[in-house]
Design goal:
Rossmann fold
Length: about 350
């Protein structure tokens, strides 16, 4: 019987637990809660509940899903990789990119599979956009603008936003780390930049000790797909927004990732051209696809739910996630120094 351990049960951890049970109905699933809760109740989809790391390690899981605060990701990843488990690590991989070399080394030395939870890679519209960028239909790519924003208190209305990970620097909060999905998929689409310029800070009255907004300008050389990519992230927008605009020499692409819609504006056309974009059956599908892939890599006898899972090659490796963290670190350095910082040495 397959053994899976869930670390932490925040909002994303609870989603992962339910999805794991759906995809692995016969697995033995345990939960390790890193802090004691008065509601010492076994979650409905779990078989065991641990509060001590020694008990979680003794469980000897085959696969571990790490949803603890970012400040604990590296510690938990190393403990369980070295205990023989494949690991899924929620984003961000760590607090800074300097922390992650040990995880990369441990995964290689033990031949254990490790991936990071940048779930937008499993949303079909992004693959549609990537194919379009390489098709030539937009001409030569000039610039791209990527946006994401949602008012932080609206993320989880049932809980106090001030106590969440997103609001606290010590736990790995802040718009740059919490919304680094956009930095991940931007670098997946366009590559890592030559240099970075960033302006970030707290411009609202939110009761947090981290930046609530940031604008990251990524600049590229002549040989790259785009010359400039601007990524804007915030905890401020009252209507959730996830969008990308790509400006080409022949046409401009507009895509809304929330509504899974896209259209192209071309010269000489009075109306924009709506595109036939592949859509998910429901919002949870990308999370199911993500774990369908992780379990296919973790268990030899696992039968994937989705036809594309076995051939999927665009998951986020620990190495790429480390590159995203470096981008975040350099963006923060750029903001503090008020200057461009080179990404590529």
């Amino acid at each position: 019987m397959s053994k899976v351990l869930m670390i932490s049960l925040g909002s994303i951890g609870r989603r992962h637990l339910v999805n794991t049970r759906e995809l692995l109905p016969d697995a033995e699933i345990a939960v390790y809660r890193t802090h004691f809760y008065t509601e010492n109740v076994l979650p409905e989809a779990a078989d065991k509940l641990f509060f001590e790391i020694s008990d979680a390690l003794a469980f000897k899981p085959d696969a571990v899903i790490i949803s603890s605060p970012a400040s604990e990701h590296v510690k938990h990843a190393l403990e369980f990789i070295n205990n023989g488990a494949n690991v899924f690590i929620e984003k961000p991989l760590a607090m800074t990119h300097q922390e992650v070399d040990a995880v990369i080394t441990a995964s290689r030395d033990t031949d254990r599979f490790a991936m990071v939870g940048y779930v937008l890679r499993f949303q079909p519209i992004l693959h549609f956009i990537r194919d379009l960028l390489h098709s030539g239909d937009l001409g030569e790519i000039r610039t791209a603008n990527v946006q994401v924003g949602q008012y932080l208190p609206d993320w989880r209305p049932e809980s106090d936003y001030r106590k969440g990970v997103s609001a606290q620097k010590k736990l790995g909060g802040g718009a740059l780390l919490e919304l680094s999905h956009e930095l991940d998929y931007s670098t997946w689409l366009f590559g890592m930049p030559d240099q970075v310029l960033c302006s970030s800070g707290k411009v609202s009255d939110l009761d947090i000790d981290v930046e609530d907004s940031a604008c990251v300008i990524m600049e590229y050389g002549h040989t790259e797909l785009a010359r400039r990519v601007v990524v804007q992230v915030d905890f401020l927008q009252r209507v959730a927004n996830m969008a990308i605009q790509v400006v080409g020499s022949e046409a401009t692409l507009y895509a809304d990732l929330v509504r899974e819609q896209a259209h192209i504006a071309s010269p000489g056309q009075d109306e924009v051209q709506s595109l036939d974009v592949p859509k998910m059956a429901e919002g949870n599908e990308m999370y199911l696809r993500q774990f369908d892939f992780f379990f296919a890599r973790s268990f030899d006898d696992y039968q994937p739910r989705f036809d594309e899972t076995r051939k999927f090659a665009d998951y986020v490796s620990v190495e790429h996630a480390a590159g995203v963290l470096k981008l975040v670190d350099l963006a923060k350095e750029s903001n503090s120094k008020g200057m461009r910082i080179r990404y590529k040495d």
